[in-house]
Amino acid sequence: MPEDTSMYKNIKVLYAEDEEGIRENISFVLSLLFKEVFVAKDGEEAFELFEEKKPDLLIFDICMPKMDGIEVLNKIRKSNKAIPIIVLTAHTEETYLFRAIELNITRYLLKPFSKDALLDAIKTCILNLVKDQENAILGNGYVFDFINKNLLYEQNIINLSLHELKLLQVMSAQSQKIFSFEEFIEEIWGWEIVTKEALKSLVKTLRKKLPSPLIKNIFGIGYTLKKES
Fold this sequence. Notes:
Blueprint: E1 12-16, H1 20-33, E2 36-40, H2 43-53, E3 57-61, H3 69-77, E4 85-89, H4 94-102, E5 107-110, H5 115-132, E6 135-139, E7 142-145, E8 150-153, E9 156-158, H6 162-173, E10 179-180, H7 181-189, H8 196-207, E11 215-218, E12 222-225
Parallel strand pairs: 1-2, 1-3, 3-4, 4-5
Antiparallel strand pairs: 6-7, 7-8, 8-9, 10-12, 11-12
């Protein structure tokens, strides 16, 4: 696992597995890494969750009732060509392998697999996601560099406090999302007891270092980031 797992918290995972025991164990491991994990027990539920939740990473068993994993992934690939996919299966037949390869999966794990094998596959997917989003273009010459965790203005580093950095990193990773006050406080201060006024003060100081109006206040709810697409 990489030393810095901060980016994991911003990634939504959809996990589909019909075997209850395996599903519970893997779900628990995923919940330790990711803030949002959606779990499906069959193919139809997996596709419904994909449509509803818009996850960033898929971990699918191939053999599932109602609709098998390959069939679900084939439907998903029609609308999303890039989402990383980890396929889990007890099958070693070439037919399954070729069908999976055609869907441009990221990793293929044969059951039974070890925890380390799963974590290594997840790491590969995360690195692919980060590679695809090394920089967030914020507009007016401002860029957030995810790799080096820097705010840049025309290639020059803008100094940020630790809390300003955490705030900007979380928002840049999920632009357009409306973050509640409570979500920000948890992401930035963890278990510390912090008031909304402290958060508002942090946002105010960060705004002074960014193009205006990048951070928008959603009255009574929280904040959102409107970066360039």
